[in-house]
Amino acid sequence: MASLSLKQVVKDFGPTRVIHGVDLTVDKGEFTVFVGPSGCGKSTLLRLICGLEDASSGDIEIDGQRVNHLRAADRELAMVFQSYALYPHMTVFQNMAFGLENIGMARAEIERRVNDAAALLRLDTLLQRRPTQLSGGQRQRVAIGRAIVREPKIFLFDEPLSNLDAELRVSMRGEITSLHRRLSATMIYVTHDQVEAMTMADKIVVLRAGRIEQVGSPLHLYNHPANRFVAGFIGSPQMNFIDAQAGDAGTVALPFGGSLTVPHRASTGQAVVLGVRPEHLSLQAAPGALALPLEVSQVEQLGGLSLIYGQLPQGAGRVTVQVAGQVGVQLGERLTVFAQPATCHVFAADEAGLALSA
Length: 358
What we know:
Strand 17 (305-311) and strand 18 (318-324) form a beta hairpin. A six-stranded mixed beta sheet has the order 6-7-8-3-9-10, sandwiched between helices. A five-stranded antiparallel beta sheet has the order 13-12-11-14-20. Strands 15-19-16-17-18 form a five-stranded antiparallel beta sheet, with no helix packed on it. It has helices at residues 42-50, 92-102, 107-120, 136-148, 166-183, 194-200, 218-223, 228-233; strands at 4-13, 16-26, 31-35, 57-62, 65-66, 77-80, 154-158, 186-191, 203-208, 211-216, 240-246, 251-253, 259-261, 271-276, 281-282, 290-301, 305-311, 318-324, 334-339, 345-348. By secondary structure, it is an alpha+beta fold. The radius of gyration is 24 Å and the shape is elongated.
């Protein structure tokens, strides 16, 4: 395993800059996830790390050694692609052994590595099958096995689960996380799915438009988002945002009436945005809680939990409420939900949307 350091890495495609001076450190043995919306630059950043793209400027270092000049094959990294990229005419064994044969490794060592990886990934009974005879999850394990046999310094995963159905994605998430623990390997994983990021990562890197918005552990990003973009991207369902105005002594006033005390750094009278997660809203009144009157526009009963969607007064926006269990709420019903100040966030109302909560 190895550490990785990016220092002011820039990538231009002609006149278009897609990566804007990224600085990042990935420690040895860490599972780091790049997450962000489509087009944010996460896959491009992964390709720069592995050498499939050349950085326009900046330094890429593996274990403290600059590798910008090295070809992808010489960086001792292994990439697992979204498409699996298996050779259909080869058996599982041949697919996993192919890269080792190309570098002239001894046959006995190839067999040892392939058999060890196959046992680790529960592929040992499938080694003579071809990819067309495998399920999607089995093909993905073969692609991972092909990376394992190379014994790379860093594993790179580019949205490896996006072609799988929902149930299989959950299963494979657990398998990759378990594999990371068993190998104690450095892994960098790209996804647009924040659930994958939250459940798999030691450290999440949130990207937007080729820039890093925030880096931290999953729960740190959930509890302390640096700005409105991160707050809205991390967490499902998405955080609710309500236009408001900062008052004296850490109060926040809503346009349709009502206020609450949330310590913040905003100036009195400044336009702000109040953020509260759906799971932090309650149907039960509590001392000091902010009351939000809603007109119910949609209800989703999911069995173990329910999602209530409602409109705030005076066109102030839509709010999602997540409650445990099943509720007898009807469309068009008017009800009041409550937010505890300790669970609320305050953000700047401008484009940057920086967190202003104290």
